[in-house]
């Protein structure tokens, strides 16, 4: 499951916007966001790079977690 750091995710409205952006790409996606750690984990069939781009398009600063990137989940699938 790809995990991302969304440094400017600060409230439940942000979580709702991120969830909406992801579910526009994949209606069956599951989004687990933690406001305290600024981490978002997404269960989806969509590549991690496309998920990150959707969150960026929604206005957020997004980084794919390094552990994920090292395993090839940074869009080079």
Describe the structure.
This protein is α+β, with helices and mostly antiparallel strands. The chain has one domain (3-70): Alpha-Beta Plaits (2-Layer Sandwich), CATH 3.30.70. Helices cover 38% and strands 22% of the residues. A four-stranded antiparallel β-sheet has the order 2-3-1-4. Strand 2 and strand 3 (39-43) form a beta hairpin. The protein starts with a strand and ends in a 7-residue tail after the last helix.
Largest sheet: 4 strands, antiparallel
Total strand segments? 4
Give me the CATH fold name: Alpha-Beta Plaits
Helical fraction: 25-40%
Radius of gyration, in angstroms, nearest whole number: 11 Å
Order of SSEs: EHEEHEH
What is the overall number of helices? 3
Gap between N and C termini? 13 Å
Strand order of the largest sheet: 2-3-1-4
Give the percentage of residues in beta strands: 15-25%
Q: What is the assembly state of the chains in this entry? A: single chain
Summarize the structure.
By secondary structure, the chain is of the alpha+beta class. The chain contains 3 helices and 4 strands.
């Amino acid at each position: 499951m790809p995990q991302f750091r969304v440094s400017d995710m600060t409230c439940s409205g942000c979580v709702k916007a991120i969830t909406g952006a992801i579910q526009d790409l994949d209606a069956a996606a599951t989004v687990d966001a933690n406001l305290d750690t600024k981490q978002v984990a997404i269960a989806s069939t969509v590549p991690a790079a496309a998920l990150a781009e959707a969150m960026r398009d929604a206005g957020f600063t997004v980084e794919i977690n390094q552990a994920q990137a090292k395993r090839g989940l940074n869009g080079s699938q």
